[in-house]
Amino acid sequence: MKDMPVSFPGLFGDWELNIDPVAIHVGHGIYWYGIILAVAMLAGLYLCMKQSKHYGLTEDNVMDMVLWAVPCCIIGARLYYILFYLDLYRKADGSLDWGAMVRIWDGGLAIYGAVIAGVIVALIYTKHHKIPFFAMGDLAVMGLLLGQIIGRWANFINREAFGTETTLPWRMKLWITSYSSVEVHPTFLYESLWNLVGLLLILFIVSKGRRFDGENTWFYFLWYGLGRSWIEGLRTDSLYLFNWQLFGQPIRVSQALSVVMVVVAAFMLFYNIKIKKRSPESLWVNQVAAEKARAAAAAAEDAVLAETLMNEEPTQGEAADPVETEAVAADAPAAEAENAEAAPADAEKTSEELPHGDEN
Fold this sequence. Notes:
Helix 3 runs antiparallel to helix 5 and helix 6 runs parallel beside helix 8. This protein is mainly α. It is built from eleven helices and eight strands. It has helices at about 10, 30-50, 60-85, 100, 110-130, 135-155, 185-205, 215-230, 255-275, 285-310, 320-355, and strands at about 5, 15, 20-25, 30, 170-175, 180-185, 240-245, 250. It has a two-stranded antiparallel sheet with strand order 1-2. A two-stranded antiparallel ribbon has the order 3-4. Strands 5-6 form a two-stranded antiparallel ribbon.
């Protein structure tokens, strides 16, 4: 019951916490669930923007993709939930209740739907902007993990996403009626803490020794899949894969998807690290840095060449030395006078030397 208190009797005794799921009672209400998810999204966005330069990307790349990804992820999360809980959205006559499907404020989102939608958006965005998909993926999974860490506390406010009954010291006490309660696994907390460890591993270990674009991404799917596969087994509100069964038990969608993710991610990590043996030089961030270095070197060479040409240019039409020019100008009148005196003598001499013509 969402209007009843929550407590942790094994840790805090009789201390209880009772938070109204509706933060502000206006219209359909502004729920803590939405506020927490908004905070989670902004925190993830901030982390990605601060880390973008380490992946050869810019803050603008992150902002541009988020503007498309956020609404698409919300739609994807809703569609995923409706698909596997379709009977909840039927009228008495069996027809689909489209209005109920749109009423997202009544609850019903699935994180895997958001992840799938996010991957599709990232594929389209990176292809259009000619950015390696896995370079963007390695950055995005960190923001996604931080968002999941914070977002799971929205489940706590709504008294949902809990597990089976337990007697462990950290058990959570919930009221199912006004007179009866259960003490259960706080699976929302398990997943939040599991994701926190995963984020720390990526930030301080995996990303520091990254050998290929996609290493963070595949590690995320491996880590999250491992955690979700066992946490999902404890939950009582799982989505089931239609009416399919395995070993006489209904198949939990998230658990099955988690196992597939773990297998695929483990293979991709093994293949790229042990078989293909990628080197850090292939990373997009290193390629971008190398291209910038080449451009800077070319610009420096052009600057040196331009300076050299400017220094050599006067050899063709070089201006005369000022001192030499002044001396030439001073000697010019004397030279002209000397030439004038010599001119008559030269003319007379020339006339004497000319031969006489024959007489008739």
